Amino acid sequence: MSMQLLFNMADDCCVGVVNRVDSYRVHIAVPDDMLLRKVHVNGYVLLHTSDPNTRLVGRIERVVWLEPEQQKLEEDAEEQYEYIVNNDVCVNALGTLKGPGGGREKTSFTRAVELLPEIGAKCFLLAGPYLTAFTGLVAEESVGLSNPLCLGSYTIAPDAKAIIDGNVFFQRHAMVVGSTGSGKSWTAAKIIEQVAGLDSSNMLIFDLHGEYAPLTDHPNIVRYRIAGPSDLESPGDDVIFLPYWLLGYEDMLALVLDRSDDNAPNQAMAFSCAVINAKRKALQEAEMLEELRTFTIDSPVPYDMEHVAAELDYLNREKVLNRSTGKENNGPFNGRFSRFLPRLSAKRSDRRHGFLFHLGGEQLQADYLHKLVDQLMHYNRPPRAGVKIVDFSEVPSDILPIIISLVAKLVLQVQQWSHAENRYPISLVCDEAHLYLPNRHSAGAAELRALAHFERIAKEGRKYGVNLLIISQRPSELSTTVLSQCNNVVALRLSNQSDKLAVSNLLPENLGGIQEILPTLGVGEAVIVGDACLLPSRIKIDEPEYKPSSGSVQFWDIWAEPNAKQDLTGAVRNMWRQST
């Protein structure tokens, strides 16, 4: 169908005329009940404007049928009445359709609402071939983008592909939300595999449960694991250590310091001095004179934790000679570390924390930082894959926020210290983000440190080429600062009222009614709204080629099997060993 026909729609497509206009809402009077039956909530309409070459595109928000009112034709006439129908259709303005002319060679669609219709302007229903033509136009404009990102097809027009601008999607941060079983991981996998298909992709996926492991069948996706207890003696090539010396001062204190301890301020002060001394000693021994002049307590300098523990132990037992009495008195820090030192020792000896403290010679060398950064941030250059999955499944939950934020902070720091011309963009995919990016009022010490790093990335990351793709089943529990920076939302089925409200708060005012759709979405259906999407729409997500292993357990079917299998002995053994 010629696009010009959108400007010359048949009269039988006209459902009514404009009788009220607000700032972004338009109300349509529909005089015919039969026409009203064709109008459906969340459908699309085309409205005339004062410019014959411009049409307003709107989304139907509400349809109201009203009882006809009798109106007398003539004051003196008897039994001469007509029925006035005031059926009302409320439409939210979405964008503007412009025909050729004024410097344009063809029909185009823009999200900007440049011209509202006048009272009495005709309203046409976009259905059938007209809807196909319109969605095709939107797809054509998106296809003009270089390597468009396609997640599926429009529910209202299955033949039209829902294509979004990949540049804007990753520039402005994005979010994928949905209840358990709604197809959230499926959607994330669809995005990830399309990124992996690009020649020079660069993405880092925080996988908390190992569910994205099947995606490594893609040639441009590689998987690393944070070292578990069974990896400490003979780690494989896919194992990553995150040495304690990468932790900043506040992060380390959040890990080992008990803020409720009366001696916490003294412990923090003495610990900082001991760390600085240990780093200074390490730099002197390595003859890194330039670094010695500029290092700080947060500099990623490998240092010996034994040196720190020994210095604190000395302070804890220190005696000071009183010259006036000739007797020894307790030193200023004597006994102040009686709780701190056992706590530090317990952390260091816990094999679950081995990726931090159980280090070999390689991880205690400054060159290890080069290797780690290269593993995490290298872009796709065969045979090295550009999409990296990092499996955090064996990291203890109590320190998980600090460890994930350590990786994110390292990425941001590398980007900040890179020259602008050498800065290569990277996306951080935060799966199950509600577990480590909660609201501040419900965050503990570890979560607060993680939030500090991620909120900085959310606010400043775009300047340095760092993007966040947030994936969560509980958007209401996420940090409001991180949420507010996500300008692209892929929302699957959500039924919880607080979760629906959290998503609707991110939408423009003229799209607020979309939250009412969320509980009605089917599995694998989503509403896409944001700067990257020309047409806020309900779409059916295409099946990814490489599917994550996130399917729900089929309780009933498994219970019905006559020869079920169960290995409790192996589970207990793994629990003892703290490793799978």
TrEMBL record:
Signal sequence, start to end: none
Keyword set, alphabetical order: ATP-binding, Nucleotide-binding
Any single Pfam family the record assigns to this protein: DUF87
GO MF assignments: ATP binding
Domain Helicase HerA central: 151-409
Entry-linked InterPro entries: HerA-like (IPR008571), HerA_central (IPR002789), P-loop_NTPase (IPR027417)
UniProt-listed CDD domains: TrwB_TraG_TraD_VirD4
Name of this chain's protein: ATP-binding protein
Organism (species): Paenibacillus xerothermodurans
